[in-house]
């Protein structure tokens, strides 16, 4: 086949649009202009110092976003100093978007309208891939690379090959987007998509809400993916209508685009999953571990701290109590989610059930505050990583699951399947 | 005997006690928190050779200082506390709020004698209980034996009269008292508040007064139960006749204070007794404001702060941290729309606990930063870097300052 004549994937099209070329080919290294970038309190000061070494002016202050979300409010004087350095930088360069305690970066970026379809968004955090849910090419880089973008507005990329995941059917009651992505991680393994693009497609996509797509895209990096992209449809447009006010192109893969692999997934065949206790790709049917004693539950993070997650958890926890000696930590992913959850009475339900509700932020997922685990403790969590030491002691056991599985398990004090709770509910249409 | 002496005598099973006398007393409540319990656990079996709790219904454990855990050591300390509580059948509060607020809401009643491994235990004088802070070794002995010894303290009586001016609160009164007495002015003495002002103060405001008695070295605080106390305990069995004194009360010292002309007070770095009138600290720029703690984290405090934040935004250069003192208060604040109001103003809401007050979690200060706080202590490094500064004030002053970005007089806004 003659190079140049075949169709392109959505990811290839987005990259090409940000170069001076009309098309790009997987494996090719290109320099791209960037639409927007962000850094958070773990890496921002490194970026600031590297940027100062380069000595150039800040490329586009309106498109550089700083977010304090990991250690907030600060748990040490050192963290307080980091916040101070970020503030000084934001004031010096007149940054328009500086967030302290507003929520997790990956929730704020889409929520505050900093992400649009077809854009290239770079962040100094691996879960930047989350914004693929909106049809953007979003990926994480290290601090030094970010300093170069701050100086130049450009970065080089190797064009990734694309794996296409064709979704059909719909999730069963009691099965959630988290279970879907855990299932996929189980299929592909932690290196199954190294430096590849994942593209979600097929009739099943329309059954997934934006909150669910964000959950799925969030975890593609757990398979090594460069990005995970969804098509732009009515659900995307509805989400963007109140927050993103620029025009955006209609980018989708050509019918004859080349995929390095195509995976078909019948969503109705997926059951509730657990990942863990030490590797994200150690995936189990939740039922096979049902009955295992747990010490803590966590609902929050950029993976599953959104309104739909809290609503599901509240439905399960309403009128119930967390089991004796079990802790439940809830961290809404952003201030606006917290406010909405309060309006709907969800926060009250959590407090009455005995949950600890923290301010919005990365919280426990970051493992340095908000309910850190001790040696030997077993936790069921809605976040995205369970590596040894991720949530505290290296000998803690962390199982990742959907918010529904977390909520049911903290009530019984044991790993509990959500299927029976949801039995008898109407099928999704 | 005054009422403190009468309560001690009753618990010593004596007809009469005198200041200076050392007596052995039975204890109604013994409380410890997650900072002090680990020491007790280390001592209980190994050093004291205890194998049981004297009275498990009287021992309360409360995790409030480092909740939820911010590091592995804390997580493991909490684990040990959980296991110990489980083993000995001790009531453990893990997520309910600041220990002193939890004791007020659930346990202590007028006439009780309470010891606890935390200095601000003196707060329960607000409801007519004798409550004393102690070290973990003493507390361990109490947990195992049910009793302790103490020297009967002398009592300083502070007569508060007048009418509270607008914009002036119980916090301003106690800061003024701390200034008068200084940090050592009441060492090993009881401070009893009386006078016509008391009838104007709610239990919450009385709690604020008594909470800071430890800042003048007080052994305990006392407010004689009155009609407001009776209403507060309307559904609790209390022997109110006990509070009728059968002989004239005696005091070591008496101090008269009229609050008519009192202005808002601010304790300046780095001592609680370095108290100044607001007029002399106005205009000092702040980086952080804290609304919470056992001193001022109750519903009326949140309501007072809300007046200054309704429809306003926290100053862009300031972080406002709000930590309700208990889950019950948190829920009431949710119900009445206060949390939403704070959130919309740009505040960070923390789960109930000690939080920023003691600097180990939830809002530590960096070098050179300055905070105005409703808490009770401003010692160097209390809330983060030793090179940070803390000013203590009422919720009104703190909220008004958070909006202004600098310390301001709340009366300008009342």
Question: Would you kindly provide a written description of the structure presented here, covering whatever features stand out?
Answer:
The complex is a heterodimer of chains A (429) and B (414). Chain A is α/β, with parallel strands linked by helices. Chain A is built from 14 helices and 18 strands. In chain A, helix 6 links the parallel strand 8 and strand 9. In chain A, helix 10 runs parallel beside helix 13. The longest helix of chain A is centred in the first third of the chain and has 17 residues. Chain A is globular and about 60 Å long. By secondary structure, chain B is of the alpha/beta class. In chain B, helix 10 packs across helix 12 and helix 10 packs parallel to helix 13. Chain B is globular, with a radius of gyration of 21 Å. Chain B starts with a helix and ends in a 10-residue tail after the last helix. The model of chain B has no long low-confidence stretch (mean pLDDT 96).
Keywords:
heterodimer; A: 429 residues; alpha/beta; five-stranded parallel β-sheet; 14 helices; B: 414 residues; 18 strands; 29% helix; globular
What is the terminal separation of chain B in angstroms? Answer: 43 Å
Largest sheet of chain A: 5 strands, parallel
Q: Strand order, main sheet of chain A: write it out.
A: 4-3-2-5-6
Shape of chain A: globular
Shape field of chain B: globular
Instruction: Look at the helices and sheets of chain A and give the structural class.
Output: alpha/beta
Q: Indicate the percent of residues in helices of chain A.
A: 25-40%
Strand percentage of chain B: 15-25%
Give the C-alpha Rg of chain B.
21 Å
């Amino acid at each position: 086949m003659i190079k140049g004549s075949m169709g392109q994937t959505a990811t290839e099209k987005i990259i090409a649009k940000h170069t001076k070329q009309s098309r790009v080919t997987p494996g090719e290294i290109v320099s791209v202009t960037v639409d927007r970038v962000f850094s958070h309190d773990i890496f921002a000061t490194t970026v600031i110092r590297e940027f100062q070494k380069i000595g150039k002016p800040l490329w586009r202050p309106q498109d550089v976003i700083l977010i304090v979300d990991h250690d907030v409010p600060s748990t040490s004087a050192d963290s307080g100093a980091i916040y101070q350095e970020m503030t000084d930088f934001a004031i010096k360069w007149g940054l328009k978007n500086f967030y302290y305690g507003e929520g997790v970066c990956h929730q704020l970026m889409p929520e505050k309208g900093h992400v649009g379809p077809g854009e290239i968004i770079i962040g100094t955090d691996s879960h930047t891939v989350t914004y693929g849910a909106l049809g953007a090419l979003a990926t994480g880089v290290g601090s030094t690379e970010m300093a170069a973008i701050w100086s130049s507005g450009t970065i080089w990329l190797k064009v990734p090959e694309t794996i296409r995941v064709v979704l059909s059917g719909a999730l069963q009651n009691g099965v959630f987007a988290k279970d879907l992505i855990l299932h996929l991680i189980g299929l592909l393994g932690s290196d199954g998509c190294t430096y590849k693009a994942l593209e979600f497609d097929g009739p099943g996509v329309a059954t997934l809400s934006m909150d669910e797509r964000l959950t799925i895209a969030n975890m593609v990096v757990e398979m090594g993916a460069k990005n995970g992209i969804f098509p732009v449809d009515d659900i995307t447009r509805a989400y963007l209508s109140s927050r993103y006010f620029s025009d955006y192109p209609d980018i989708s893969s050509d019918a004859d685009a080349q995929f390095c692999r195509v995976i078909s997934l019948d969503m109705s065949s997926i059951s509730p999953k657990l990942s863990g206790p030490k590797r994200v790709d150690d995936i189990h049917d939740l039922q096979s571990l049902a009955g295992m004693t747990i010490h803590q539950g966590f609902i929050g993070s950029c993976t599953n701290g959104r309104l739909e997650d809290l609503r599901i958890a509240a439905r399960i926890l309403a009128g119930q109590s967390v089991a004796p000696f079990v802790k439940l930590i809830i961290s809404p992913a952003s201030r606006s989610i917290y406010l909405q959850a309060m309006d709907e009475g969800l926060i009250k339900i959590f407090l009455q059930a005995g949950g600890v509700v923290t301010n919005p932020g990365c919280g426990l997922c970051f493992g340095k505050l908000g309910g850190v685990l001790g040696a030997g403790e077993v936790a069921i969590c809605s976040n995205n990583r369970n590596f040894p030491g991720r949530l505290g002691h290296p000998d803690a056991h962390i199982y990742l699951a959907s918010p529904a599985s977390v909520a049911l398990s903290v009530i019984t004090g044991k790993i509990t399947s959500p299927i029976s709770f949801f039995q008898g509910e109407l099928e999704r249409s | 005997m005054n009422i403190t002496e009468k309560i001690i005598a009753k618990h010593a099973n004596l007809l009469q006690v005198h200041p200076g006398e050392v007596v052995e007393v039975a204890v109604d409540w013994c409380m410890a928190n997650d900072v002090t319990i680990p020491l007790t656990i280390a001592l209980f079996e190994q050093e004291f050779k205890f194998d049981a709790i004297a009275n498990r219904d009287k021992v309360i454990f409360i995790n409030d200082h480092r909740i939820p855990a911010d590091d592995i050591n804390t997580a493991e300390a909490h684990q040990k506390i959980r296991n110990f509580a489980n083993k000995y059948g001790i009531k453990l509060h893990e997520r309910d709020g600041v220990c002193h607020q939890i004791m007020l809401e659930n346990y202590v009643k007028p006439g009780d004698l309470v010891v606890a491994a935390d200095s601000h235990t003196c707060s329960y004088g607000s409801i007519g209980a004798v409550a004393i802070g102690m070290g973990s070794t003493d507390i361990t002995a109490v947990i195992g034996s049910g009793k302790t010894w103490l020297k009967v303290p002398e009592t300083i009586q502070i007569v508060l009269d007048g009418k509270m001016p607008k914009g002036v609160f119980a916090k301003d009164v106690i800061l003024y008292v701390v200034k008068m007495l200084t940090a050592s002015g009441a060492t090993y003495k009881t401070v009893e508040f009386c006078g016509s002002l008391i009838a104007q103060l709610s239990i919450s405001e009385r709690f604020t007064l008594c909470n800071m008695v430890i800042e003048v070295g007080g052994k305990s605080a006392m407010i004689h139960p009155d009609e407001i106390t009776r209403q507060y305990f309307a559904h609790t069995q209390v022997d109110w006749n006990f509070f009728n004194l059968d002989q004239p009360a005696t005091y070591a010292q008496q101090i008269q204070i009229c609050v008519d002309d009192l202005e808002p007070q601010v304790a300046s770095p780095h001592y609680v007794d370095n108290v100044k009138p607001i007029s002399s600290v106005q205009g000092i720029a702040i980086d952080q404001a804290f609304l919470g703690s056992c001193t001022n984290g109750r519903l009326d405090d949140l309501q007072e702060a809300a007046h200054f934040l309704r429809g306003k935004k926290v100053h862009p250069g300031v972080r406002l941290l709000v930590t309700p003192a208990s889950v019950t208060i948190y829920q009431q604040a949710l119900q009445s729309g206060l949390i939403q109001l704070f959130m919309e103003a740009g505040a960070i809401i923390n789960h109930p606990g000690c939080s920023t007050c003691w600097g180990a979690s939830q809002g530590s200060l960096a070098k050179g930063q300055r905070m105005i706080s409703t808490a009770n202590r401003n010692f160097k490094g209390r809330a983060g870097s030793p090179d940070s500064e803390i000013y203590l004030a009422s919720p009104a002053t703190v909220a008004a300052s958070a909006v202004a970005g600098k310390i301001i007089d709340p009366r300008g806004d009342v």
